[in-house]
């Protein structure tokens, strides 16, 4: 069963509708490109921040360890000074006080060395975390770079396609009577950009309201401009694909 659109204006309107819908879809896609680009930038920034934080932790850990090491060094100097002085003290009281200082230095050194060991183990963790974050960042950078190139290529293609579609639409519009274009645009504005609708199974496929049998039979012939009595769209009978 081959349905032909015998009315040239109707046929042009159907084509115009197809072109307008394709244009709308393409424009929507083009509009989404900069949004996706921005989202990609933000995603990359998150990964950069994560790596930066890991790096900072690692550096702070190293700095803290170096600080502890220099404190240990200072206590060792004190310790050796106290041990030297131990030989020259005069009284037992002084001797006991010096011994207490020495014991204190040894405790400090031992506590700080324990802390240094803990720091070194933590530093291993931070180093691993930092390396993992760096690897993730590098993978993400490549992924995002590839997606950016895809988007740029799409944009170039889409803009040239847009250009061609616009040309086809303009030449199609020139074939149509201005009143018909005005009608088409009025309906399209009121009906979310869809002014022409197929009729199948006795009903308008846009608003799904059943058509009177006589009206449907008229639509099936595709010979004149007939509008849906419910949604006002211009109806046509589609060719089976
Ligand atoms: Zn309808």
Features:
241 residues, mainly alpha, Helix Hairpins, 4-stranded mixed beta sheet, binds zinc ion
Q: Would you write up a description of this structure?
A:
- The protein is mainly α and 241 residues long.
- Helices cover 77% and strands 5% of the residues.
- It has a domain at 31-174: Helix Hairpins (Orthogonal Bundle), CATH 1.10.287.
- The protein has helices at 8-86, 92-175, 178-190, 213-221, and strands at 196-200, 203-204, 226-227, 234-236.
- A 4-stranded mixed sheet has the order 2-1-4-3.
- A hairpin with a 6-residue loop joins β3 (226-227) and β4.
- α1 packs antiparallel against α2.
- The model has no long low-confidence stretch (mean pLDDT 94).
- The chain binds zinc ion.
- Zinc ion binds at residues 197, 204, 206-207, 209, 228, 230-231, 233.
Characterize this entry briefly.
The protein is mainly α. It has helices spanning 8-86, 92-175, 178-190, 213-221, and strands spanning 196-200, 203-204, 226-227, 234-236.
Q: What radius of gyration results from the CA coordinates?
A: 40 Å
Order of helices and strands: HHHEEHEE
Strand content: under 5%
What is the fold named in CATH at topology level of one domain? Helix Hairpins
Summed up, the helix count is: 4
Spatial strand sequence of the major β-sheet: 2-1-4-3
Overall pLDDT metric: 94
| Helix coverage percent | over 70%
**CATH architecture heading of one domain:** Orthogonal Bundle
The counted number of beta strands is 4
Runs with pLDDT <50, length 5+?
none
CATH class of one domain: Mainly Alpha
How would you sum up the major sheet? 4 strands, mixed
Structural class by sheet pairing and helices? mainly alpha
Distance between the termini: 10 Å
Describe the global form. rod-shaped
Which ions, cofactors or small ligands are bound in this entry? Answer: zinc ion
